[in-house]
Amino acid sequence: MSKLPKENQFLDLSDYGRPAAKWIASSLQDTKFTAIHLTVAFIFSGLIAIGCLLNAYYWAAAFFLVLKSILDAADGELARVKNQPSYVGRYLDSVSDIILNFLLLLSIQYISTASLLQMILAFVGLQLQGTLYNYYYVILRNKHNGDTTSRVFEKRAPKALKGEHQKNVNLLFKLYQLFYSLFDRSIYQLDKTACKDQFIPKWLMTAVSTFGLGFQLLLMGIMLSFDLADYIIPFFIYYSAFILIFIGIRKTLN
Asked: Where would one find the signal peptide in this protein (predicted)?
């Protein structure tokens, strides 16, 4: 199942792992495995990638980064095929992603010539890129009656869904707010009218999908495989300039 109706789907460059994710979800559909189990699996995959990175096993690091992306997609797929949407899963996924992103960039800074300040700038850029992608994607999903577990505005903890405990939703929501609220507010300030205009052409969404975490991790894996670790952090700093370019294009089209 897709997050968008078929007629509204676009070529998502960050979603290259979707076929494998669907296969995993289909294989686990009639088992006791849940989306949360797959979220935990992608956390371990991310940590293994970091361990490989720190020990100079760059090809292995690249493999586990791609596997992490596939499992990251598979948890949502399994939730959909089992018809078990979950706010716990949604927030656990996001909180895990940002922590792993920070640890990953910190590890890359450790093995490269980048400074700690450059690493922090790259991390902020990486998160702002992903936030713009998610912002536009959630707008489309709400407009076209797609998956609605994610919301454009995350102001208060949602009511727990069936099978969830409200205290768990509340805790993870607070962590989500702690880690993401500044990035969410920043992107909203840069493009307040996106929610009202709601026109984001498919080709622009394909371009913005290069900001998706899956594509970001793929780029890191490729650079690591070709022994280009020194270029990873500078790349994500400079690529952040496209945030303003993509927003400018979207505004021009409306």
From this structure: none
Q: What is the pTM of this model?
A: 0.93
| Alpha-carbon distances of 18 from 13, 26, 37, 70, 245, rounded to whole Å | 10, 12, 18, 7, 28
Note whether residue 7 is domain-resident: no
Give the per-residue pLDDT at 1. Answer: 45
* Distance (Å, whole) CA 148 – CA 4: 10
For residue 73, give the amino acid letter: A
Average pLDDT over residues 235-248: 98
Question: Alpha-carbon distance 213 to 129, whole Å?
Answer: 9
CATH number at residue 83: 1.20.120.1760
- C-alpha closest to that of 176 among 107, 96, 95: 95
Domain count, the chain: 1
Examine residue 5 and state whether it is found in any structural domain, yes or no: no
Mean pLDDT over residues 182-210, rounded?
93
Are 45 and 64 in contact by the 8 Å Cβ rule? The answer is: yes
**Which domain, by its residues, includes 181?**
12-253
